[in-house]
């Protein structure tokens, strides 16, 4: 029998959505990055929906992501490494608050950190 995928271990779509809702809310209140989100072209609800689809698709879910690629979504934003770390901290806090295990947290953070060049444009 195959072991459960990261998608399944995170609680599937509902678990990922709960984490995404908390992470986006954290971004809006994080003094390091909040202006990036309050001045964005998407509402908080739209960000949650888009990020949920992105993560579900990327984590072996059945969803289909139709949004922008990471480079396109972050093009011209000149995001700093400190801002990326702040966003990752928000996501880590969201995963912890939803009771996600240490192994799953580490796997998600590695996936996201590996996207650093695409997010920072470097």
From TrEMBL:
Keyword terms:
Heme, Iron, Metal-binding, Transport
- Report the source organism: Alcanivorax sediminis
Please report the name of this protein according to its UniProt entry.
Answer: Group 1 truncated hemoglobin
Q: Where does heme bind?
A: 74
Record GO terms (molecular function) = heme binding; metal ion binding; oxygen binding
Database matches in Gene3D superfamilies? Globins
InterPro entries on file: Globin-like_sf, Globin/Proto, Hemoglobin_trunc
One matching Pfam family is Bac_globin
